[in-house]
Amino acid sequence: MRALAFLSFALPGLAEAAAPHSGQIVRNGFALSDVALFVFAAIGVWLAQRSMRRRAGKRAKD
To answer: What is the DSSP track for 5-56?
Structure first.
């Protein structure tokens, strides 16, 4: 009986319907949070590169 309970959690495809917390996720494209994370990461990379270029430019002038 324990093995059957374990398999029901380990293999969610065996369940007839997608119950809550079954592991089956319905996706239909990008979520708004995905876009926001990408934008913030791109801005962070751009700011870091800009600051490193300015720092390297100051060293080259000295």
So the answer is: HHHHHH-GGGSSS--TTSS-----S--HHHHHHHHHHHHHHHHHHHHHHHHH
